[in-house]
């Protein structure tokens, strides 16, 4: 197993990358080992996971195609095709004696009960009774008298007898653990609460040993083995030691799943114990049977058998475990680096967005200020044009012969520099004309007249001052209908006050 990935994942399609990620999440295998297996499985995640846990046989289609393209050659090897593991070249270099027996992954099958019709069931009743008697006699015979033929018959009969109502593997495991603790008043052994397939997958994923214990209540040695051997201090110390990395799974052969496990592992003698673990030299994903213990054994012999297998395979499992930890560390490091990069990238994007918004706001403010300045300049130009035109329409001061003239004293604003101004106006002069006189007073003083000046189109002049009486104080609006004669009589004092821009807007 490689600690680093040399494969470029970007070469895969999105569906293939998704299948690869799902496969790695379930199996924890490296990318270099996962991609070839997925390619052989046509990128089907379920088929690849099944091959990972159950082991992968030879590709018969590829061998047939190769045989068609190459001439037949004599071979000196006459072994079985099942002995070849295509996933690991080290397995080919091992002799048949050095190779371990593969550990089957047992998934309980739902059996369908079928019964004979009523008449045939009555006719076959003597045969059924005879078979049951033979099976009972077989279990009471000593081990040396059990012929292989009768063993096969009894084994098949037990399988049919033990298949009752279907039970979930997890429920069967929990029931076995509960009955074991009640029967022997001990919970020193922490049996795995799950099916055999789940325990085997857990042992493979966590790279631990799986100790399977199968018992049969019909054997006399079962109780003695459990009390004196399995629950002995020596065995408990070995199994419960965390350094040994042992998962223990137990089953009663009267349960359908345990009976199927006993059949797959060729168990004929009880009590039966089997030690299973990952065999890296024979295949990176291969689970093998490294030790079998059948029949009653003393605690010393039982520990010795298990210890020999553990000492033999523990260094290999420790190396694989360290390799897996290194892969997980590298994966976590890459994940943290990717997360930090994403956070940094998000922060950079946020800063760029804020900078872009600030630049847009500054540009909008600058554009708005420029437009306001242009509008103010245009307004000032129109205002000046209006004054040049309006000054030509202001009537001159009446002479002394006009007896109806209105004499006004105007206190001009400080900005005009005119101070107090006294002037006569015609009685029919409107208040708006009085405002125009004050507005154009500077041009009247300079005597600047442009006879060609015209009124700007679309411009409505607004005075930046107001004229008020002194006592009582009252503001005079620039009306075009109210005359000075009607409003002021023969004369009076008025005050010209400038209006601020805010007051003007109000």
Automatic annotation (TrEMBL):
<dbReference type="InterPro" id="IPR050730">
    <property type="entry name" value="UBX_domain-protein"/>
</dbReference>
<dbReference type="Pfam" id="PF14555">
    <property type="entry name" value="UBA_4"/>
</dbReference>
<dbReference type="GO" id="GO:0043130">
    <property type="term" value="F:ubiquitin binding"/>
</dbReference>
<feature type="coiled-coil region">
    <location>
        <begin position="353"/>
        <end position="383"/>
    </location>
</feature>
<dbReference type="GO" id="GO:0036503">
    <property type="term" value="P:ERAD pathway"/>
</dbReference>
<feature type="domain" description="UAS">
    <location>
        <begin position="175"/>
        <end position="307"/>
    </location>
</feature>
<dbReference type="InterPro" id="IPR029071">
    <property type="entry name" value="Ubiquitin-like_domsf"/>
</dbReference>
<dbReference type="InterPro" id="IPR036249">
    <property type="entry name" value="Thioredoxin-like_sf"/>
</dbReference>
<dbReference type="InterPro" id="IPR006577">
    <property type="entry name" value="UAS"/>
</dbReference>
<dbReference type="GO" id="GO:0005783">
    <property type="term" value="C:endoplasmic reticulum"/>
</dbReference>
<protein>
    <submittedName>
        <fullName>UBX domain-containing protein 10</fullName>
    </submittedName>
</protein>
<keyword id="KW-0175">Coiled coil</keyword>
<dbReference type="InterPro" id="IPR009060">
    <property type="entry name" value="UBA-like_sf"/>
</dbReference>
């Amino acid at each position: 197993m490689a600690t680093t990935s040399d494969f470029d994942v970007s070469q895969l399609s999105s569906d293939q990358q998704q299948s690869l990620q799902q496969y790695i999440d379930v199996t924890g295998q490296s990318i270099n080992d996962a991609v070839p297996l997925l390619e052989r499985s046509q990128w089907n995640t379920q088929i690849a996971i099944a091959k990972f846990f159950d082991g992968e046989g030879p590709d018969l289609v590829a061998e047939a195609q190769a045989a068609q393209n190459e001439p037949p050659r004599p071979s000196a090897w006459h072994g079985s095709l099942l002995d070849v593991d295509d996933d690991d070249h080290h397995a080919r270099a091992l002799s048949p004696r050095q190779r371990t027996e593969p550990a089957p992954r047992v998934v309980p099958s739902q059996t369908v009960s079928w019964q004979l019709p009523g008449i045939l069931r009555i006719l076959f009743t003597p045969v059924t009774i005879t078979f049951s008697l033979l099976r009972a006699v077989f279990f009471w015979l000593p081990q040396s008298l059990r012929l292989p033929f009768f063993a096969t018959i009894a084994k098949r009969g037990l399988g049919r007898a033990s298949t009752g109502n279907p039970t979930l593997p997890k429920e069967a495991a929990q029931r076995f653990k509960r009955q074991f603790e009640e029967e022997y008043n001990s919970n020193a052994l922490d049996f795995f609460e799950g099916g055999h397939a789940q325990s085997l997958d857990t042992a493979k994923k966590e790279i631990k040993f799986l100790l399977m214990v199968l018992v049969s209540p019909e054997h006399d040695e079962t109780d003695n083995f459990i009390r004196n051997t399995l629950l002995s201090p020596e065995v408990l110390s070995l199994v419960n030691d965390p350094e040994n990395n042992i998962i223990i799974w137990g089953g009663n052969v009267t349960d359908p799943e345990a009976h199927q496990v006993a059949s797959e592992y060729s168990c004929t003698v009880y009590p039966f114990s089997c030690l299973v673990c990952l065999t890296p030299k024979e295949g990176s994903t291969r689970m093998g049977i490294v030790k079998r213990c059948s029949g009653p054994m003393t605690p010393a012999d039982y520990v010795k058998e298990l210890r020999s297998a553990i000492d033999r395979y523990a260094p290999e499992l420790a190396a694989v475990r360290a390799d897996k930890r290194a892969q997980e560390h590298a994966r976590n490091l890459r994940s943290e680096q990717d997360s930090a990069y994403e956070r940094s990238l998000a922060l950079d994007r946020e800063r760029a967005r804020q900078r872009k918004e600030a630049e847009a706001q500054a540009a909008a403010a600058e554009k708005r200020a420029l437009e306001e300045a242009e509008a103010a300049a245009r307004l000032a130009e129109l205002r000046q044009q209006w004054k040049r035109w309006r000054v030509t329409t202001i009537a001159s001061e009446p002479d002394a012969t006009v007896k109806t003239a209105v004499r006004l004293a105007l206190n001009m604003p400080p900005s005009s520099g005119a101070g107090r101004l006294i002037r006569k106006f015609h009685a029919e002069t409107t208040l708006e004309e009085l405002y125009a006189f004050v507005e154009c007073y500077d041009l009247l003083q300079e005597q600047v007249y442009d006879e060609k000046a015209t009124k700007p189109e679309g411009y409505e002049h607004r005075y930046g001052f107001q004229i008020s009486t002194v006592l009582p104080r009252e503001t005079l609006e620039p009306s075009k209908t109210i005359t000075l004669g009607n409003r002021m009589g023969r004369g009076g004092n008025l005050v010209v006050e400038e209006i601020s821009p805010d007051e003007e807007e109000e």
